[in-house]
From TrEMBL:
<keyword id="KW-0812">Transmembrane</keyword>
<feature type="transmembrane region" description="Helical">
    <location>
        <begin position="309"/>
        <end position="330"/>
    </location>
</feature>
<dbReference type="Pfam" id="PF06030">
    <property type="entry name" value="WxLIP_PGBD"/>
</dbReference>
<feature type="domain" description="WxL Interacting Protein peptidoglycan binding">
    <location>
        <begin position="34"/>
        <end position="153"/>
    </location>
</feature>
<feature type="region of interest" description="Disordered">
    <location>
        <begin position="341"/>
        <end position="361"/>
    </location>
</feature>
<protein>
    <submittedName>
        <fullName>DUF3324 domain-containing protein</fullName>
    </submittedName>
</protein>
<feature type="signal peptide">
    <location>
        <begin position="1"/>
        <end position="27"/>
    </location>
</feature>
<keyword id="KW-0472">Membrane</keyword>
<feature type="domain" description="WxL Interacting Protein host binding">
    <location>
        <begin position="160"/>
        <end position="298"/>
    </location>
</feature>
<keyword id="KW-0732">Signal</keyword>
<dbReference type="InterPro" id="IPR010317">
    <property type="entry name" value="WxLIP_PGBD"/>
</dbReference>
<keyword id="KW-1133">Transmembrane helix</keyword>
<dbReference type="InterPro" id="IPR021759">
    <property type="entry name" value="WxLIP_HBD"/>
</dbReference>
<dbReference type="Pfam" id="PF11797">
    <property type="entry name" value="WxLIP_HBD"/>
</dbReference>
Length: 361
């Protein structure tokens, strides 16, 4: 019985692991392991922001201070730091990355260039505080608008006790400005290029949209679609509300093509966006060559087939595991019934002996 219960628990855990996949986990007794607090200098433009919003002067160095407090009782933790640039996301929010294409095309002196940690890692004793220093070195020449990014603070993967899932992390925004003026009033967008592509196994039409100004454009209502050239009927569309462009960023805006095959021909990409202050109507013709359409269709089909095979394997493994669990449960039930039957036979036998002794007396 005990052996079967152990096996049951083991298979149950394996089954959960397969179904849930890579789950973000952390030991409950440890919590996240540390907390962070920005320490603002006298160059902080607005101390109520909850992130670094710093005024700079050309070429004048300064320091950003960050308090890191260990919340563990029995172990040292190693915390590492990564600086990332703000960029526009096809989903309409501001994302963060060190995408070299975005840096090369539109970012001059990005946050990753002007903000550097003094050390990439720091070891913190239980319940102790460390003050981390980041050197901020603005460009020597004047810049307009803002530079935007973030500092990621995460426990080193070498320190984590659990081998499953992702580590928890904090992120603090960093914005630098010379003027300290409003930075959410961008008013220009350019449609640079349009192409058909396969992204993560999905057919899409990508529009490369540039925000050339060092300011955000926020709260946009986006209506985007593709037509055949010279026609009004929408073939595919993608509509998103509350869309935001990061400052000085190149966006790959995607219109999903679904299961429909690409066909060679002439098309037109439409990107319409508006908020309370600005409106944009970007239009660009593009061509899908027949050979490119065939190649992309095959590439997407291979990805779908691969995903399908993986799903079938996972389903088959789950079926096997469930069958094993059911077999163990049925075997347990059979053992329980057998024990009950043995007990009945024993009681019946003992009862018969009692009656026989009474008759002899």
């Amino acid at each position: 019985m005990k052996k079967s219960n152990v096996l049951f628990k083991l298979f149950f855990v394996i089954c959960l692991s397969l179904v849930l996949g890579n789950v973000k986990t952390i030991a409950a007794e440890d919590g996240i392991g540390f907390s962070v607090r920005p320490i603002y200098s006298d160059t902080q433009i607005d101390a109520e922001k909850g992130y670094y919003y710093v005024q700079t002067e050309p070429g004048k160095k300064q320091e950003l201070e960050l308090s890191i407090l260990s919340t563990t009782d029995d172990r040292d933790i190693t915390v590492e730091f990564i600086v990332e640039n703000a960029m526009s996301s096809t989903y309409g929010d501001i994302a963060y990355s060190n995408d070299p294409e975005n840096i090369a095309k539109v970012l001059k002196h990005p946050i990753t260039e002007i903000v550097k940690p003094r050390t990439e890692k720091v070891v913190i004793k239980p319940r102790q505080e460390e003050i981390m220093i980041f050197d901020l070195t603005p460009p020597k020449e004047h810049y307009e608008g803002v530079k935007m990014g973030r500092i990621v603070i995460a426990e080193s993967s070498d320190d984590k006790k659990t081998g499953v899932g992702e580590s928890y992390q904090y992120a603090l925004g960093v914005i630098t400005s010379e003027e300290g003026l409003a930075y959410n009033d961008g008013n220009k967008l350019d449609l640079e290029e349009v192409r058909a592509n396969v992204v993560s196994g999905t057919k899409v039409v990508e529009g490369f949209i540039l925000n050339p100004d060092p300011k955000t454009i926020e709260n946009l209502e986006v209506r985007s679609y593709v037509t055949e050239k010279g026609k009004a009927q929408k073939l595919k569309e993608n509509n998103i509300d509350n869309f935001t462009f990061a400052p000085s960023s190149l966006l790959k805006f995607e219109i999903p093509w679904g299961l429909t095959d690409f066909k060679g021909g002439e098309y037109t990409f439409h990107f319409e966006a508006k908020n309370q202050y600005e409106s944009f109507n970007l239009i660009k013709d593009f061509t899908i060559k027949k050979e490119d359409a065939n190649r992309l269709n095959k590439e997407a089909a291979f990805s779908v087939e691969t995903k399908t095979i993986v799903k079938i394997i996972i389903i088959a493994l789950n079926v096997v595991l469930v069958s094993l669990i059911i077999t163990i449960l049925m075997r347990d039930r059979k053992w329980i019934d057998e024990l009950k039957n043995r007990k009945r036979r024993k009681n019946k036998k003992n009862g018969s002996r009692g009656k026989g002794k009474k008759g002899i007396n």
